[in-house]
Amino acid sequence: MSRRLRALAAVLAVAVIGLTATTGAASTATAADAPVSHAPIKGSGSSWASNAIAQWQADVATNGGLHVDFNPNGAALGRSDFAHNLTDFGVSDIGYQGTDPSTGQQDSALGRGYAYLPIAAGGTALPYHVEVAGKLVRNLRLSGQTVAQIFTGKITNWNNAAITKDNNGHALPSIPIIPVVHSEGAGVTYEFTRYLAKEFPALWGACNGGKKVATEYFPVNCGGNGGMKAFSGSDGVMNFLTSSGANGAIAIEEYSYPLGKNYPSAKLLNSAGYFTLPTQYNVAVALTKAQINMNPNSTDYLTQNLDDVYTNPDPRTYPLSSYVYAIIPTSANDAKTNTTAARQTVGDFLYYSICAGQSEIGPIGYSSLPVNLVQAGFTQIAKLKTADPKVVLTDRNVSTCHNPTFIAGHPDQNYLAKIAPQPVACDKSGAGPCTGTEGTANSNPVGGKAPANNSSTKGTTAATGTPGSTGSAAAAGGSVAAPPSTGAVAAGDADLGGAAPAADGTTSDGTVVPTTLAADDHAGPSRPLTALVILLFVLGLVAPPIVVRLLRSAR
Predict the structure, then answer these.
(1) If DSSP codes are grouped into helix, strand and coil, which group holds residue 159?
(2) What does pTM read for this prediction?
(3) pLDDT band at residue 497 using 50, 70 and 90 as cut-offs
(4) 410-449 core/surface letters (b: 16 or more CB in 10 A; e: else)
């Protein structure tokens, strides 16, 4: 072979090697981005959060193929199950206490490594069953003082003067009150009794054996009220409340449950003098006053102090608002969640829950997390990768997080709280009470605004004696996005509406776009693909003239 032909072969060899190397790099990148393995996982705990979790379970099963089992056996058992390595995650309205301050029951993680992760907000509602002339009363209002007296046995009949005063002189007939509580250790009980202990300590202390502290175990028949009923779980409470023999009953329950059964909840008086419901907007406003432990070195990192929530002076506040938490494993040698596939499923499920899943839960009775807790949630989820470097957590940031509390260009604002509607005049103490759907707005924002009422939301609390209208309880307009590492192709986002967002986070038709707060680091072609294109371009320019000259010289 001549020297010129050998040079030609060398040029071609370099090209082949370059193409092979670049293609190999591209193949490696593709393999790294391929869907990862998952395994079924199991959780247990708060029935307060169960309706939200059930929605997320269905979403990730459909869009990502994830199998997540959840037993709503109560927050106390959820923490215990996790501590005894029976579950991959727990769900609780509170963190481990060491011992229950009221009952003295032991409550610790028993040495299992864990982290708390806020997953949803919501309101402890006061659903009730009061019929007058065969019709269900739907516009009841109660002050915190009256509620405290009802559940501590001081008020036992619906014709009590304090109830009449709360309702601006509108008296109810003589019907015995049946307070309904949870029989299991429940987070909703803790949140309610914490409110009583903080705001009405004398009443609560007399009911709770002199202990002016919160508890997950309500002291049944406290204050000598033999009419009190206790049932296991949220479904048990609601099944009794809605039964034909429950006229006069009132319960403590997460708002999602009465809303889903189209049952009324009492409007609760706030510090500004307005009676409000725990809509997603009123809860979002209330929790702007929550004090969150932001010390990442604390074992109670991200847990809540609600003292200022109870007294938030904003007239849109619902005082009994709070967060609920997932408890996730963080040890490299965890006894239960000890495979990459299981940790991956926990990470993907929780990422979905605090991001796209948040847009699903507002209309069914919860409220979405603000951006600071979502970002802190990413930090907690990252501990799964610290325990196992094989866990894939790419693209877990606000740029991929479709959450309705923050929108493009304004990550520092709680969007739901910003657009929350002001209460109407008939909800003010001394006026009303309202007789229509005023103050019940709970659907997701439309056209950048909260809806005027609940006319399009399933579970509406409507006017006295009139059933609420029904509709979709989920976000309108499409499927939900899959977790990034599942590799599933996401359907159209429910909130996008097909139009490009403007700088204020809305589209040309006014639709809110709760997405893309920062540039996506992984957008565009990969580096190997870019290198391949450049190499081919250079070879296309350089190689032909060289080959032609070499061939001419060889003749």
Answers:
(1) coil
(2) 0.79
(3) very low
(4) ebebbbbbeebbebbebbbbeebbbeebbbbbbbbbeebe
